Amino acid sequence: MMKKRNLLLSMVMGLTACLTLGTPEAATAAASTGASDISSYGPNHLIKEDGSLWVWGGTKSVPTQVHGVSEIQASYPLWNNGALVTGRDGSVWKWETNARTMAIEVTPVPELKNVTHVQSSYRRNIAVTGEGTLYTSVTSPGTNTVSPFAPVPGIDHVAAVSQYYENNKLNNKVSSWQRYLFLKTDGTVWTSMDELATFKPVANLKDIVQLEQNYALSKNGSVWTWPVQNEYEPETQSDPAVVTATPFSGLTDIRALYNNGRSRLAVDVQSRLWFWGSTVTGYSDGTTYQDEPVPVVFSGISKVTDAYIVEQSIVALTSDGKVYAASIAAELMSPNAKFTLLASGIQSMQGGGRHIIMQKQDGTLWGWGVNKDAELGYGTYEFSYKEPVPMQQPISVTLNGESIAFTNGVITRSSLNFIPLRSLFSKMGATVGYSMDKVVTITGTAADKSPLSIVINTVTGATTVNGKSIPLPTPPFVVNGTVYLPLRFISEQLGAKVEWLPQEGRIAISSK
């Protein structure tokens, strides 16, 4: 079956063939030094061994530390802004970016403890605790008021949650709803389509170990499925509350499922990669999806340990540390699809829908794919990259021992560190001004106690100190409207001592 989709969905899915390389200048934006102090990471965050949390994407073009939380164990992104994070003691916080100031704001969530899973969608967040209790928070339409998390009665011992949108057309009337599915610790799956008011078991499912929308993986390696209700589909049921699963033919001995809502992958016990679902042809509002219901196994790749659908590409990691990509831009997916090497020396990867983040064996993080909202943490907003790029190393800054919060993280270019305009220098006693002609003026006191005036033209890079022209090896720059200034040069002009502590990933500034 073939269907045309609207422009928005087409833009989301149709961009792989127009990926572009970054400029040589952008290539210096990320530090290539080791990052072995990373404890865990996701597509838009990382947690260091010291328990600090760093995030990127949106207004955060590079990893930016979230202040106000510590000893972080896990992070779960929310639908439109921020995330829920859990501490090693089970405490839960919510962080989000203030739309006006761009600052990260942190709020404790005392009603939650020991969160192990979060499912976030438009107007509803669902959290699962280590005890299997389900909590939900709802955003009210119109007022955008967010309710506190409250326990959901009627279901317990939940391990994971999945969801998707459904509708049907009965008696010429279209109805729509969110289908929620709950994998319980006993291996059964339950469903709700009335905003968590009632729950019913999905018939025929037992010993389930993974749930991916309308596909379930049993511990014996069999895959089960059930129809997604759609007003255009003939399988629309008269009672949407009743869900019955049936075996999905063509797949056996499966150990992992992957799904982006349209296209699906599976890895079997022989580490072979399987595909079924949608392929795509065309671009923009002419995008067309073709359904390939019968699974095909790829002959051109083996030893697969992990895989994702990223835009119009399949990305797979093999046991020898190599990442390959193959296009799904075709009317029919061939078992002989060509897989092209993207990267080597990779120990793990995380998929973010439109991009992936990979960790090399030296601990560094690298990104590939769409970068429209700085998803790669590379320090640019270049739309996308067809070659992996190194993520900016997370760097913290302290002033006289106090950790400094930034609206956007430190950016390294040509081995020099740059920081946002108003983030630090005012704390060192300086006055910072920015004129309409994009000239920065910093006035303060120099090391010898004499008056100090630094003037920097952020367009040309021309810099003067007390009227004397000073050449800068790397001029200031602007990222997404934020002016970045050289940290060491200005700090030392203000009489401060600047020390780089590579083992901590920290710049320590001492100022009297």
From TrEMBL:
Keywords: Repeat, Signal. The keyword Ribonucleoprotein does not apply. InterPro entries: Cu_amine_oxidase-like_N (IPR012854), Mao_N_sf (IPR036582), RCC1/BLIP-II (IPR009091), Ub-ligase/GTPase-reg (IPR051709). The keyword Membrane does not apply. Residues 1-29 form the signal peptide. Gene3D superfamilies: Copper amine oxidase-like, N-terminal domain, Regulator of chromosome condensation 1/beta-lactamase-inhibitor protein II. SUPFAM superfamilies: Copper amine oxidase, domain N, RCC1/BLIP-II. It comes from Paenibacillus tritici. Residues 399-508 form the Copper amine oxidase-like N-terminal domain. This is Copper amine oxidase.
